[in-house]
Amino acid sequence: MKKITIAIDGYSSCGKSTMAKDLAREIGYVYVDSGAMYRAVTLYALEHGLISEEGVIDEPRLRDAMQDIEISFQFNPERGRPDTYLNNTRVEDRIRTLEVSNHVSPIAALGFVREEMVRQQQRMGREKGIIMDGRDIGTTVFPDAELKIFVTASAEVRAQRRYDELTAKGEACDFQEILHNVEERDYIDTHREISPLRQAEDAIVLDNSHLTIESQNQWLLDTYQRVIEG
Ligand code: DC
Prior knowledge:
- This protein is an alpha/beta fold.
- It is built from nine helices and eight strands.
- It has one domain: 3-Layer(aba) Sandwich (Rossmann fold), CATH 3.40.50.
- The structure holds 2'-deoxycytidine-5'-monophosphate.
């Protein structure tokens, strides 16, 4: 069967990665979470003292460090999805903390960071048969993707999902703080100068505020099949 490229973009915490990884498993594609790559760069910057207490990024040092940052993924059968590795160390849990979430948007707005990430992402997608989710996949990384989805849901619904996720992991958190973080990231992601989050003209929009995971997965599988048969 012909292999295609599938780009899934949308706001933070709207369930993109859940639907992307489930479809990848169903149809035997590689799944890449591009947000995890920006999170890994952020973790590196935090751990190497490249972000001050006030949140100021040491751009010259981070620019130099980019050549020492290698991000890769290894499928974890227990989780049914790939884990993120930073310089061959598993960082999957450490990149999901609120501290990384609070610092990632300004890091993802830097041109030299995006350039390097997009280069690595395009390399991963050379052979097609890939599903990548993020903010600029259908617009910048794979503008020729055969299937593009733009996912959206209300900020409150998304904050609740992130709250449930963190609580389930035993991380103490506050709903209002998470809602604030979601809204702030929406603003930065859609207003940054380079590759802002926007819907590609040829993307199909999915508002999943009131959809169960099962019905969303079915919708995505049906949409994929229509494209493959078309
Ligand atoms: O999807 P996520 O919440 O893990 O993404 C983390 C951050 O990375 C988010 O603030 C937006 C940014 N990002 C991006 O700028 N471009 C992408 N392709 C993916 C994520």
